Amino acid sequence: EELSWAGRKGWRVSSKSEAQSLIDLKYFPTIFPKFNTKADIYWGDKFPIMSSTGLIAGCIDFSNGTTDDCYASRSHYFHAVRYNYFADEEFTEGFGGFGCPGYYWGFDGSHEEGSATIQDGRMIIQNDSGSAGGYYVAWIDCDESPYTYYPWRSASYYFKDFIVSADVEYLGGEDGYYGIYVSQTGRDSGVNVIRFDLYSDWGYYRIYSYTDWVFSSIVDWTLSDIIKTDSSNKLEIVKNGYTYNFKINGQIVHTQEVPEFDGGGIGIIFADGVKVAYDSFRGHKLNESAFGSLRIDIKPEAANQDGAQWRRLGTNKWLSSGELDSNLGPGDYTLEFKVLPGWNSVPRENITIKLAQSTIHEVTYTQNTNHYQVEASASEGGSVTGADTYLHNTWVTLTAVPNQGWVFSHWNCNGQVVSTDAEYTFLATDDVNLIAHFDKRPTVLPGVLMLLLDNE
Asked: 3-class secondary structure for the chain?
């Protein structure tokens, strides 16, 4: 892993999907000739699994393009693949011509194409064009005429599960954003782009998407002490199924479900006037064997019978005790637990998922059968409903009803305004006494309009 060879770094054993994507039945051996492959069997997966007959792993016979399972004790060839870095030749050729086939940087925006240079292995963006722009990674297929340009399709071919990351550093210029993005091309509707930006050296980040090319904020500009304001920051977008984890310097800052977003390209984006450096830009598919999983066992059983459940913060689906949350990329996750009447609330917890690790964690609810008196009264001008005795952690809804000629103003508890909504919902955790306040509706008197006309 991470082998340095032939003047390049980042070599590793190919995954099954990567090896299968090399099969091309137009040739013999069944692979593009420049890959210099023998008409023989190659390993198609570096992660063997145990079967009823022994340890096996996927393999590919490039003499006929077939795939099968081979015993891990056998000796076969393998392909080494590598991540793509900005300093690598494929990513710099796009600024002055390109090889065929190969990767190149596509031009995206109205900024001058010369605004990007390679210095000491980093891409330096100096955008003084008067507008924002970006670059995207593409692949040129030379077997088709005219040449066909595809979005990035190295290890992650269909973009179902992937990581895209870059080390980015603000070097000066005007204040503005810069970041990385993933895109879904060739769609007439649905999510088209998801972006992950930093802002100058102020310590802010944001996440947003274009859906049917309409801007939609996922996370507005947010200050974070995770961001380093005097050096580079590592941005990562990790996609597992339709769940996205956005990470800064290895820590998850947001998790978001984005249904039906499953393919396209990757690239960088930057505002007008900024000078920023990008380094170690990577995009690769997550091998399923590298995923982790999480199981939460909830105790006691009585809590489960009352509906105890859990979920990762930012996801929609509640899971029951013993239910598995799989396909999780390595990182830190925050868990939340459903509030149950008659039970104390379970505080949120942070869980770390490691590479290819199954994590089991136990959570205990404690019973609380206290009952609380919720008293509610109304000042002049209305009435209230909902006052009663409630079991601990039961949702309570009080409703304020104004009389004719009056309007609701606010709910007051112990001299503090707790809500300005006529329907106030809260959890019963103590005895409370609330007062609904009303205001007299302003009286509108009939008036007379007088129009004075000048004789002239």
From this structure: CCEEECCEEEEEECCHHHHHHCECCCCCCCECHHHCCCCCEEECCCCCEEECCEEEEEEEECCCCEEEEEECCCCCECCEEECCCCCCHHHHHHHCCCCCCEEEEEEEECCCHHHEEEECCEEEEECCCCCCEEEEEEEEECCCCCCEEEECCCCCCCCCCEEEEEEEEEEEECCCEEEEEEECCCCCCCEEEEEEEEECCCCEEEEEEEECCEEEEEEEEEECCCCCCCCCEEEEEEEECCEEEEEECCEEEEEEECCCCCCCEEEEEECCCEEEEEEEEEEEECCHHHCEEEEEEEECHHHHHCCCCEEECCCCCCECCCCEEEEECCEEEEEEECCCCCECCCCCEEEEECCCCEEEEEEECCECCCEEEEEEEECCCEEEECCEEEECCCEEEEEEEECCCEEEEEEEECCEEEECCCEEEEECCCCEEEEEEEEECCCCCCCCCCCCCCCC
